[in-house]
């Protein structure tokens, strides 16, 4: 979550977010997967693909996260980012099938940052991808899964990162 926050904050700064907006984005990032607390470890840590039942169990974590945050008045403002970070730009995501500009901006930002982090980090079920491969995947799914504007900004952020600028896809 801290890596996701780091990348998300760079996107937020590039978008001109105020200090308060950046603070809210950072907290939303730290809570983005809180719903996984209700997901069994057998599913979370499974090596290999999930079966249909396990996939449904995993897909419930955004709603679980929203329910957890709803218990504290001070955390309710983070619910849209947590609940909607698995929505797809083309409307094929979950839990509500939101599309395009209907997806909360913080959720769209977290989606790109978290996807990049997931692709480039070791997980129990996969080996990490090279940064350039992850960036190509973000571009490939821009306009489908990801907000193309956020992907473009993220790639600009990466291009200014001294150890990652060489990993930008050509033409990006």
Summarize the structure.
The protein is an all-alpha fold and 172 residues long. 53% of the residues lie in helices and 0% in strands. α1 (2-14) packs antiparallel against α2 (19-31).
Number of helices: 9
Rg from alpha-carbon coordinates? 16 Å
Low-confidence stretches: 165-172
Strand content: under 5%
Helix coverage percent: 40-55%
Q: What order do the SSEs take from the amino end to the carboxyl end, as H and E?
A: HHHHHHHHH
Morphology call = globular
Mean pLDDT: 91
Largest sheet: none
Total strands: the figure is: 0
Distance between the termini: 26 Å
Derived from helix and strand composition plus strand pairing, the structural class reads: mainly alpha
Report on this model:
With 172 residues, the protein is mainly alpha-helical. It has nine helices and no strands. Helix 7 (105-120) packs antiparallel against helix 8. Mean pLDDT is 91; it is low at 165-172.
From the structure above, extract its key features.
single chain; 172 residues; mainly alpha; globular; disordered C terminus
Topology:
Elements: H1 2-14, H2 19-31, H3 41-44, H4 52-59, H5 61-69, H6 79-83, H7 105-120, H8 131-140, H9 148-160
Helix pairs in contact: 1-2, 1-7, 1-9, 7-8
């Amino acid at each position: 979550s801290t890596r996701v926050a780091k990348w998300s904050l760079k996107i937020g700064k590039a978008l001109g977010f105020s200090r308060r907006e950046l603070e809210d984005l950072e907290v939303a990032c730290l809570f983005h997967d809180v719903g996984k607390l209700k997901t069994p470890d057998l599913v979370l840590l499974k090596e290999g693909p999930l079966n249909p039942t396990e996939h449904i169990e995993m897909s419930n974590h955004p709603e679980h996260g929203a329910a957890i945050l709803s218990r504290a008045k001070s955390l309710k403002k983070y619910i849209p980012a947590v609940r909607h970070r698995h929505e797809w730009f083309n409307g094929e995501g979950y839990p509500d099938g939101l599309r395009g500009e209907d997806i909360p901006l913080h959720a769209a930002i977290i989606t790109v940052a978290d996807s990049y982090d997931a692709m480039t980090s070791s997980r129990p079920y996969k080996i990490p991808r090279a940064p350039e491969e992850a960036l190509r995947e973000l571009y490939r799914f821009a306009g489908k899964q990801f907000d193309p504007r956020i992907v473009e900004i993220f790639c600009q952020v990466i291009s200014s990162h001294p150890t990652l600028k060489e990993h930008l896809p050509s033409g990006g």
